[in-house]
Amino acid sequence: MSDTEKKTKININNVSFEYVDKKSKYEALKDISLEIKEGEFVCLLGSSGCGKSTLLSLLNGMNKATKGEIRVDEKLVSGPGIDRAVVFQHYSLFPWLTAKGNVLFGIKQNGKNYSKKQRLELADSYLESVGLSYAKDKYPAQLSGGMQQRVAVARALALESDILLFDEPFGAIDPKLRLELQELVSRLSVEKKKTVVFVTHDIDEAILLADRIVVMEPGKIRTIVDVDIPHPRKRDDLVGKKKYEELHKKLITSFYNHVEENIYEEVFL
Ligand SMILES: Nc1ncnc2c1ncn2[C@@H]1O[C@H](COP(=O)(O)OP(=O)(O)O)[C@@H](O)[C@H]1O
Ligand SMILES: [Mg+2]
After folding, report:
1. What is the pLDDT of residues 159-176, one digit of tens each?
2. Which of 105, 167, 169, 263 lies deepest, with the highest CB count within 10 Å?
3. pTM greater than 0.85 (yes/no)
4. Closest atom of ligand 1 relative to the 54 alpha carbon
5. What is the mean pLDDT of the chain?
C-alpha cells in the first residue's frame, strides 16, 4: 500500500502549548502540525528542552493543547485513553507486582473480555515476546533497568492499543542492552502493526527505528526526514552503508544547525 492510500492515524493540527504558573508563562510548542499514518514509526528527534516530551504529553492526553487540536482516528483527544500506550524513560512499573503481575495489569485494562486462563496465557506470551519468560515472577526491584523496560514494553503491548508512545525509554540503559531493546521495539512494532511515536535525542536510534524522523528545534518542527530503509533493521547492517551515512550527515546538520546559528550570533554580534 502506498503512503497516500494509508489511513491517517494521528493528526496534529496547529498545536501550541503554554506552561503557565502563577508568575510566568512559557510557550513550549508553537503551531505544530503533523500527520501520522497508520502503522508508521515516527521519531521525534531534538536536543534537550525543545518540546519533545511536551508534544508526547499532548498525544498521551496528560496535557491539553492551548491552541489547535489532536485527533486519533478522527476523534478529538481529550485525555489519556487505552487507544494509546506509553513507555517512559523512568521505570514506571508497579513495585508491588511481579513482572507477570504488571503485564496482567495491562491486560485487565485493555477492555477485552478475556477469561482468567486467557489473561494468564497472554501475559506469558507478552513476556516471552520481550525475552523475559525466565523472570516473570520477579519484582521490579529484583530486575535490572533494561529488564524493567522490557516489562514496561510488554505491559504497553498488553494494552493492545494501536498506538505506542515512547519517551526516551532506553536513555538510561547501557549501549549494548539499548541496542537489543531498540531492535526488539523495531521488530515488535512491525510485527504487531503499531503506529509509534518515539522521542529520542539519539540520531542513531532514530535512524534504526523510524520511517520518518521529525527533527525539532525549540517549540517547532525544523524538518522532516524520510528513512527509506526496509525493516527489520540491524545496526551492524546499517553502519558504513552509503544511505545510512548520508542520512546521518543530513540529520547532524539539521540537528546542530540552530546551535551553530546561536554560536555565530554570540561571536559576531
Ligand atoms: N512543567 C513545566 N513548567 C514550565 N516549563 C516546562 C515544564 N515542563 C517543561 N517545561 C519547559 O518546556 C520546554 C520543553 O520541555 P520538554 O518538552 O520537556 O523538552 P524535551 O523533552 O525536548 O527535553 C523546556 O524549555 C522546559 O524547560
Ligand atoms: Mg523530554
Report:
1. 999 999 999 999 888 888
2. 169
3. yes
4. 17
5. 91
Nearest one of 244, 251, 248 to 217, comparing CA atoms: 251
Least confident window among 26-30, 60-64, 94-98, 251-255: 251-255
Rg, the chain, Cα only: 19
Orientation angle between helical segments 116-129 and 145-158, nearest 10 degrees: 130
Ligand 1 neighbour 53 (Cβ under 6 A):
yes
Cell representation of residue 98: 511481579
> 123 in a domain, yes or no?
no
Domain range for 55 is 8-83+161-268
Structurally, the chain folds into a number of domains equal to 1
210 located within any domain: yes
CATH number of the domain within which 206 lies = 3.40.50.300
Higher per-residue confidence, 108 vs 2: 108
Predicted pLDDT at 268 = 42
Instruction: Map grid coordinates 508508521 to a residue.
Output: 40
Q: Is the CB of 28 under 6 A from ligand 1?
A: yes
Q: Determine whether the shortest distance from the Cβ of 54 to ligand 1 is under 6 A.
A: yes
Which amino acid, one-letter code, is at 18?
A: E
With respect to residue 75, please indicate whether it lies within any of the assigned structural domains: yes
